[in-house]
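hey so u asked for the seq, here:
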Amino acid sequence: MRLFHPVLVLYTLLLVASPAQAQEKQYALSNFDVTVQVRGDGHYAVNESIVYDFQRGHFSRAYRSVVQAEAGAVRSVQVTSPDTPVDSVRVGEHDGTPQMRWAFPDRTAPAQFDVRYVLERAIYERGGRNVVELDVMADGAVVPTRDVDVRVVLPPAFDLRRDQVTLDPAGRVEREAERLVATFHQDRVAEGDDYSVEVTFPKRVEGEFLPTGTQIVFGLFLVLLGGAAGGIAAWSWRGPRPDVTARRPPSDLDLPMAVALLRKGDGWAFLAVLLDLARRGHVTLRHDREDQALGSKERVHLDGHPDRADLTEGEQRFVDELRAYDTLDDFWDDTSSFRSDEMSERRDEVYDRGWMRSHAGRSNLLLGVALAAIFGGFVAIATGDSAVRFYLLFSGIGGSLGGFIAATRRYTWTPEGARRAMALRSFLNHEKAEVDRLRETDPARAAERLVASLPWLILHDEVSTSWIEETSDALDAADAAPELPDGFVSAVADREASGAAAAALLPVVGVMGTIESSTAAGATGTAGGAGAAGGGAGAAGAA
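ran it, structure tokens below
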């Protein structure tokens, strides 16, 4: 992969037949000669001679697209042929790419076309050397091509010795009338094959910058260095992590406060409260399948019957809001503002109690530095080509990456907050391990323990719909159904005798699926001429 060099690909002559003849065309390229005169100012005078061996069909028009360096231009275009008149030569654009087009009388016999033009500012430099690269068949030969000869003529002003010129692939360097001439030969380029040549020599003229492999590796090192610095900063700012063992959640943490302390999304707080209310009998979750035109749809219906004496103020507001909706989907679609306001109060309470500390100012500053670094890097490379600017670009990318990583540490626990958070995580790990253990020995008890601890357990990072469904699957083979609270009802279990035990968990799975899906939704590139300076000719083709 090349970076920051002129992308120069001289695509092929495409010979166009009339529609009636299009089904019978066949040809090959019997000779392909390219000569590039490199000038002292970095421009290239290109002379291409291509012999088409027309074997079947009529041909009357041709064009070639030239994708050249942004700063360069194609000019002084001439197209001639010793075998047929050529007219209507013009240079235009197609899809933003310069094209040379010409026409000739219908022809079925072989014909030679000579194409001449000047390509401006095409040379580039790499590692203190100038490079002329010719992609003779850049995208692969469209048809078999025979007898390919490429000549790159270097001017006397470059004052080079033969041993200073390097060729790839192997070729010859000879001196002709005070000029060094690099020559390459290829007997045949099979259809679909690429063919390119490269001539390098000590720098003699300013050109587009192309980094060496070593420079690219060092640039990537700068990116990794910046990212690592940001990672180290984020790690060092993570706050205390005490080792705490607990078998129950901290007594001064309710479910919404726990969600705020663990920095989980608002949806998980309301999912936890909803499941807790169902477990305690204040809400009934009734799972059902409704037949629709395109199949059935899973729904969780809501029935609220609260006992105000057993509800906190926040739970009472939640139940009152819940009673206005028939299904969980309806509630979830219409109450985003209500949920956001409720959780904003809980997060403020976490800060007020001194359990968390905000570093928003520091994070915003780091984000600003990251944006400035990446912008500065691109400005550096846009204003010129050099190794220094190349390193500035990658340093900017690395600094930006590190800044973004470090800026993610917007909040940290205080020692008191960390103690509660670690106790909560210890409790969650214990409960999950117990459900996993019981699933293997007593699936019914596993389901009962799952539902009993689920309001808290869903705060565990590894608890998901699929994990709960594993318990449901284990129940299919169980002899007894679990005894679940009355707040969990499955109409599917009532209608289907088989799988009733597993169906008892369907309300839980339906609730989890609704929240997980909404959370995920919110988060979530001929006959050709020779080119120069990072390019060359495209493949040959005829229509």
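Confidence is low (pLDDT under 50) at residues 1-12, 17-22, 494-498, 521-543. The first strand starts at residue 8 and ends at 10.
lmk if thats what u needed
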